[in-house]
Write a structure and sequence with these properties.
9 helices; elongated; mainly alpha; three-stranded antiparallel sheet; 554 residues
């Protein structure tokens, strides 16, 4: 029987570049199966499952055929006997094809096709393991491998890897095009001078931003390495970088311990000084209280002394007055008589004077004692005040020393911490190089890629601005600078000449131009200058009126 023409395969989704199938399929005559095999019961039929061989490339595609013509698989063989087709009409690709598929005529209709293999059911009972089943080529869908993004490096690229062009540098510099003529050089020089100052500040800011981005990236690597540290210690490939990281850890711990020890020592010294100052404050308070008491006692005793001296002074005055009265009464012509009991009063006053003198002496001694005690209290207060000032000075010295050493220790701790983070980040970078990112999840890799992009962008921008500092036309800049310097010198010279001219004019204020006296008056009006008037007044003084009256003047 003649086979129908198979339809063209649909290769829209998968095109492997195979040759087109032949246009005509030869007529295949299949002989009837042997009767002993046809009458074999279904229960005794062996089930043979034979997978298609695995090929490194995609298997060839067999075009789909109608159910009536799907009776076998074409293999290169001789032309089956009994074929009525003319050999001259067969295509070259189908020449010498002989298929002996008679045993499989009844089981091909029920053969399920799986991905890459043929599964034979109960209808395929005509083949045994010795007969050998024909191989069936099955088309498999080739899925493209999932694209994997490049792994992060965790490194800052060097200048050669940043691909900075001259256009990028000129754009970052912002100097503008060089001048077309020498007369345009001064504005260009001024613009370059101003822009370089701005670029220097921008380069410093970008350097700080780049350092901060690198620290943030290394911190992310440090966190990842800390998480994977137990696993990394079991991998001998990381022994070298892990040992460096352990050494950095030990240095960081030692620096932190030194800082803590220094702070503890300064804290203890500070506590001691604070305790001594507290005691001195209490002692000074007591001394001030004693000083106030001694001052009050001294003032009280001085007032008592003043009262005793006042009584003594009054007795002395009364005694002198009585004696003077006696002297006056002794005179015959005075007419003064002594009052009765005058002599007794004088005797009484004379008796009181020794007691009053003794009392004054006692009060003076008491005043001296009170003054001495007050002076001692003042000395004690002054001593405690001096000790407090000395402690305050020692405390300030301690604070300065503590601040200096603590700052130095803190800087050392910061340096060791940065070295520790860098060493552990180097472990992460080694992990990315050696392990190819297999240990890290995709989310962590994406985060590291973002940090790499940020660091690369800042490094590129910093390089553009740094190289932009010198990306100007030096010949035009030198020309403009020379022209600006010449203009400045010219202006300064003109100012000096003007100042000298003004100073010379101020030294001779009455000096006139030569020939000014012979100038003709304007429009017939005689104009006399004030200087001429002064000169005339000096040369022709006014004479007094000699024998003339005001009426005669008129």
């Amino acid at each position: 029987m003649a086979a129908e023409k198979p339809p063209s395969p649909d290769l829209d989704e998968l095109d492997l570049g195979l040759p087109e199938p032949p246009a005509d399929i030869p007529d295949l005559s299949l002989p009837a199966p042997p009767p002993e095999r046809a009458n074999r019961p279904a229960a005794a039929r062996p089930v043979v499952t034979r997978a298609a061989p695995a090929h490194p490339a995609a298997p060839p595609i067999v075009p789909a055929r109608p159910a009536a013509a799907r009776s076998g698989v074409v293999h290169p063989a001789a032309t089956p006997p009994g074929s009525s087709r003319d050999d001259s009409t067969r295509p070259v690709a189908a020449a010498d094809i002989a298929l002996d598929l008679a045993p499989s005529q009844q089981r091909l209709a029920s053969t399920p096709i799986a991905m890459g293999r043929a599964v034979f059911g109960d209808g395929l009972d005509d083949f045994t393991e010795d007969d050998g089943a024909p191989e069936i080529a099955v088309a498999t869908a080739v899925k493209p491998a999932k694209e994997r993004r490049p792994l992060p490096t965790g490194l800052t690229p060097d200048a050669s890897a940043l691909d900075v062009t001259a256009i990028d540098i000129d754009r970052a510099a912002g100097y503008g095009p060089p001048p077309a003529g020498w007369y345009l050089a001064p504005p260009y020089t001024w613009r370059v001078y101003q822009r370089r100052r701005t670029l220097s500040a921008e380069v410093a800011e970008l350097a700080q931003a780049l350092a901060a981005a690198e620290e943030e990236r290394d911190q992310v690597l440090d966190d990842l390495v800390t998480t994977l540290w137990p696993k990394l210690e079991q991998d001998r490939r990381f022994d070298e970088v892990l040992e460096v990281a352990r050494a950095a850890d030990r240095q960081a711990v030692a620096a932190a311990e030194e800082l803590a020890s220094t702070n503890a020592a300064f804290g203890a010294e500070r506590q001691r000084l604070d305790g001594e100052r507290t005691l001195l404050e209490q002692e000074r308070t007591r001394n001030l209280e004693v000083e106030q008491q001694r001052e009050a006692e001294r003032e009280q005793r001085e007032r008592a002394l003043e009262r005793a001296e006042g009584r003594l002074q009054r007795v002395g005055i009364e005694q002198r007055n009585g004696r003077r009265l006696e002297e006056q009464a002794a005179q015959a012509d005075s007419g003064i008589h002594l009052p009765p009991g005058h002599a007794d009063r004088l005797a009484e006053l004379a008796a009181q004077i020794p007691d009053l003198l003794a009392e004054v002496d006692r009060h003076r001694v008491a005043v001296k004692e009170a003054a001495a005690l007050m002076k001692q209290a003042q000395a004690d207060s002054l001593r405690t005040t001096r000790e407090l000032r000395k402690l305050d000075a020692e405390r300030r010295t301690l604070e300065d020393k503590s601040s200096s050493e603590s700052s130095s220790r803190a800087a050392s701790v910061g340096a060791t911490q940065r070295a520790r983070r860098t060493a552990r980040a180097d472990v992460g970078r080694a992990l990315l190089r050696v392990d190819l990112g297999a240990t890290l999840p995709e989310s962590d890799l994406d985060r590291l890629r973002a940090h790499d992009d940020a660091v690369r962008g800042l490094a590129r921008k910093h390089l553009c601005h740094a190289q932009g500092l010198g990306a100007f036309d030096r010949s035009a800049f030198a020309t403009g600078r020379a022209l600006l310097a010449g203009a400045v010198l010219l202006v300064v010279g003109l100012l000096v000449v003007l100042v000298v001219f003004l100073m010379s004019s101020s030294e001779h204020p009455g000096r006139e131009a030569p020939g000014s006296e012979d100038n003709e008056p304007l429009h017939g009006n005689h104009l006399t200058r004030p200087s001429s008037l002064r000169v005339a007044a000096v040369r022709c003084p006014l004479r007094p009126f000699e024998g003339r009256t005001p009426t005669a003047m008129g």
